[in-house]
């Protein structure tokens, strides 16, 4: 069983990495919020949780008032849009923590969010098979994303039966740490990429697309027509804090009472903590591969929040 679990390590964002874009999506599709530095999140998220220093990732955010079984991307529902699967949630910080940055499970602080500045419909990787669909939040670089259940650290993946995928979900609705389900599923390749899209009468713009499970496959599994909507419509149903709305680029975006607190750690010009954790491979192992694994390290798209664009096998 131990060998089987090790063989389930997830590949790098759904498979091989062949290249990297030189710049992040140059425009956001929301039209409501533009984030140019991670410090802009500090005051906006402070009422909903705590900012803490975590390892070499610097200032990270921990949600408050959540239950023990809470996990990211488990309170809400998936919406199919012209940018792929968008995670819609009524959690008051959903506009930020599901569409920017990384999540990972810390052995002391549990689920923490590492800020990033590039927007996407959802920063997740996917698995499917055996009548199940699963997803996991992408971690910051230096953290190995694996479906293994080891050392008391839960698997980052959650699963639902395919016919329930489009339903509104709660932590009690998803399947976690189930080896039988994990063994039935495989990574969905090619779910994250940059693409150029045209929305309405606007000029073409570069956006991140998260396709995950193909809509046609899901509709076949559920024997139902899954509703879809334009990405702007999906975003309009997400609540944004008043202080973050319609802030023009290059201006002072927060009012005086929402300035970054004194003593906030410096960040790189690209808006990311300067140093990252390094994964030390075992002797004879390539970087990022756990002993016994033949796959590659799963990591968030390169530049996700750093200005160099997502990484997937498309790049």
Radius of gyration from the CA trace?
Answer: 19 Å
How many helical stretches? 6
Counting copies of identical and different chains, the oligomeric state is single chain
What coarse outline follows from CA principal-axis ratios? globular
- Mean pLDDT across the residues is 73
Structural class by secondary-structure content: alpha+beta
What separation lies between the terminal Cα atoms? Answer: 35 Å
Helix content: 10-25%
Main beta-sheet annotation: 5 strands, antiparallel
Which ranges are low-confidence, i.e. pLDDT below 50, for 5 or more consecutive residues? 1-23, 246-303, 305-315
What labels describe this entry?
disordered N terminus, disordered C terminus, two-stranded antiparallel sheet, 11% helix, 315 residues, alpha+beta, 6 helices
Commentary on this structure:
11% of the residues lie in helices and 20% in strands. It is an alpha+beta fold. It has one domain. A hairpin with a 2-residue loop joins β3 and β4 (84-88). The longest helix has 8 residues, at 215-222. 43% of the residues are buried. Mean pLDDT is 73; it is low at 1-23, 246-303 and 305-315.
Topology:
Elements: H1 2-6, H2 40-45, E1 49-54, E2 58-63, E3 77-81, E4 84-88, H3 94-97, E5 102-106, E6 110-114, E7 124-129, E8 132-137, E9 158-161, E10 175-176, H4 179-184, E11 186-187, E12 192-197, E13 205-210, H5 215-222, H6 231-236
What can be said about this structure in brief?
Helix content is 11%, strand content 20%.
